[in-house]
Amino acid sequence: MIVSWKWLQRYINLNQLSDAEVAERLSLSGLNHESTQALAGDWAIDLEVTSNRPDCLAHVGVAREIGVLFDRPLQVPDPQPPVSGPAIQSLTYVQVDCPELCPRYTARLIRGVKIGPSPAWLQELLANATGDPTQFKSINNVADITNFVMLECGQPLHAFDFDQLREQRIVVRAANEGEVLEAIDHKTYSLQAGMCVIADAQRPVALAGIMGGAATEITERTVNVLIESAEFAPGSVRHTSRRLKLSSDSSYRFERTVDPVGIDWASRRCCQLILEHCGGQLCSGVIDVGASPIARAPIRFRLDQIARILGIEIPPATVRRILEALGLHIESEPNGNQVWLATPPAWRRDLSREADLVEEVARIHGYDKIPEDHAVPMAVSQTTPLDISSQRVRGVLTAAGLSEALSPSLVPAVLSDLYSPWSNAATLSTLQPMLGVLDTKFWNNAGPVDCVRRSLIPSLLELRRINEFRHNLPVELFEIAKVYLPGETFPVEPTMIGVCSGRSLLDMKSVMAEVFATIQRSLKVRVEVVQDSFFSPGRGLRYWIGDRVFGLLGEISRSTQKKMKLRQTCVVGEFFLESLVQVLQVIPQSQRQSLYPAIERDLNFILDTKVRWSELEATVRAVGGVLLENVAYRETYVDAKRDGEGKKRVLLTMTLRSLDETLTGKQADDICQKVIGACTDKLAAKLVAG
Amino acid sequence: MSLPDFVSQLDALVSEAEQSFADAQSAEQLEAARIEFLGAKAGRLKAVQKLLGSVAAGDKPAAGKRLNEVKSAIESAFQAASERLENVVEEVCDETFDATLPGTSWTTGRIHPITQTILLLKDIMGRLGFTPVEGPEIEDSWHNFDALNVPTIHPARDPLDNFYLASAQLWGNGSSGGADMLRSQTSTVQIRTMQQRQPPLRIISLGRVYRPDTADETHYPMFHQMEGLMVDRGVTMSDLKTVLRLFATAYLGNSVPVRFRPSFFPFTEPSVEVDYYWNGRWVEFGGAGMVDPNVFQAVGYDPEQVTGFAFGLGVERLCMIRHGIRDIRDLYTNDVRFLAQF
Questions:
Q1: ipTM
Q2: 20 to 30 Å CA-CA from A333: which of A61, A109, B10, B62?
Q3: Cβ-based neighbours of A306, under 8 Å, separated by 6 or more
Q4: Do B273 and A32 count as a contact with CB atoms less than 8 A apart?
Q5: Is the model more confident about B172 or about A576?
Q6: What is B3-86's CATH number, 1.10.10, 1.20.58, 1.20.120, 1.10.8?
Q7: Chain B contacts of A409, Cβ < 8 Å?
């Protein structure tokens, strides 16, 4: 809302006040000062008005605030335009078919006006209140006066050329689907059923509360003028305005509600100014259709609530002065000790509860009066296991050279459908897509970004593609974020660790092993090879903790690579962070370390090619006993001539050590024999002699 | 030969020998020095020893004693030198090796600047006694709006301003039959926490929120918020101002001016906007206020018994000012050159 300093002075004495001082106080009492423009003999002060304060979308409202802040009286005109024509009811008729869209409609009629330019003072004030007088275009005296009254009191008005109204009457109704209206901006709007229009006997002549129509606008030939002052339902105005992408000063105010008592005041004020500046005769009476304003109920205000909420005492006399200056009527409750009955004025619909009054007192008294060095009781806070786990994961992954990415939770269907390892249910989608988040040059047929993602992997592949395209190599990324798996009433939202790397599968596997080890040093994680065409054959792994799957890691297949137009293959993985949180060892515990030397024994087995290392290791560990400290893989060697087709040699090293003694060669030999026996029995392994 | 002459020859010998042994840089040099001083046939010690015969008989015991001392001093100097040289390996300089070449490629990854900002916020709020809580991002409109005192006709609920789920009609309008939207604010987590726990509460919730702005330099349809809540008996607006002042000081530093001005949010009354003075203008830091009694009623708290304050701020703006990031989209494009800067 831009207010003119000069205009404000019509209602309040601003002598001895500077515009800067006033702007500062207004900022600190709720009307945030955006800027001040110096004009010839005036200041245009731009104030941000929050949606609960439509009364301040007007000069009188802002003047009232200044009056309260600086303790100066407010003078508001009391328009009593002289009546000299026949009763309006004998000349026109207003019918409201949709009271839910238009709770109240009033009309006055002035006949015999002389349309012409508006007076200089009026043009000057209107121009200054735009903030940029060079942009201001005066329309004519009647139209300018309706705008003036709106900027004076906040009530939008509309003036119709009465003779252009078919059958000289007004019908407020819902539009019919397909009706069209040429508005005064000379654009034609196609109306949809349910939009509220002002019509005459035959056709829509205005978009209710938004804009008038060209057919009935005031022109130099206009002689008789019908003045509309009404109230339209905020939701309906907003809905229509957004659908038609047409907003105006009028719609902005109706969306925030208007003062029900001010409707008639504005109508009288408008007529008074038209009679003064355009001549004509005002028909007697007013057409007033709909509910009259209801008297406001008093609010019970316990004065002790001020200290309870604000933490400071404010003298009752100050409280009373503030509330009365804001227009509230105060009475003490009978027998009430420090309890008032405060009736808010019509223009303050936002005041309905005690808490609202506490705020009014606080903001006028000044938030700066409330101390900000109060002794707040101390309290301890906890770092959550989820945060501890995330940070450990980040620590290892960044140490391993992966950077953290954050990518949008919504993806296009092409990415959502690429891979969904955790849910077969159809992806959730949003009514509105995310705009501007997709590389549309690449994904020209991807469809809208409206799928709530079920996996981080497609997003990470997309980030990899973008970086490849920009020649940013290497691309080593991870993300810790939620995915959304459709559920009964609420989706399940597990937090996932996603990784995407250009290094080898086994390299990435060891990075993940280190991640798990920082969560719990002795965590037992099992892997199995999965059959999944998303991964390169034999190069996808499913991860287990106990009997629960908690992740996947693998090298993407050639076809995945092709779909994503990736130049290079890569390794991707996704793990449930919550599974790690469940096994998190918050405080690692020290284990006793053996002080005795270890014995290492190499075993070289001939095995079927199909035998996996995981099976061999498990077999060795199962019989190795407590003295088996570690089983390390050394190498695989294939020599079909010596060992036959379908065979391989796997060399492993066992580290044997006791906590309590130096092991003897015989103890080591015994373990070796047990291991060889088990491998022979379970895996048909043959020990390479020598 | 007089005794003083003999002794002075011995003294000269010992100092020369010690010097030679100390100067030896290789086993060969040391061996040469050993032969010179300690050689069995023509060593200089041997030569001096021969002069003992010409010393007067009365002086002989003294001269002999001195000779023995010198001999053992020279031998121990030799011993020390040979121990020193035992660990010396002859070094050959490989001229083809260039130690000024760049280090072998090895990098660490970086934590995303938004995460870094969130960690800092959690750290500061943690010191003030606030513990993080988590909640769902896909919400029902009861938690996102109704419980937060946002009326059914409020513009904030407009379908164009929210990411409602395509399946939302399953639940009807505004009912809490199930998830129907992506949350537009993290305040939903406060509601869920208050439904589950009794005061006193000191919590923060941090996370992703969603509003359908078209992505441009300063807007992104997904962003992060931090929301804080403190509820107890006797919490007042001076607690609010004190906590936010401490927070602002911890985040921005002591010298940055901060102001509190009235504002409007449906879920707080009175409401506050906190600004800080930065580069010659007031910048919005975040919104706050005393929890509206209607919010307490919605979660089953008695507003006559407890009071509280809530605050919220956008993480992106703090992060961008902090790191000089000009385009919010950079945060979510994840160009690795961008990420490597932090």
A1: 0.89
A2: A61
A3: A312, A313, A314, A319, A358, A361, A362
A4: yes
A5: A576
A6: 1.20.58
A7: 137, 182, 208, 210, 222
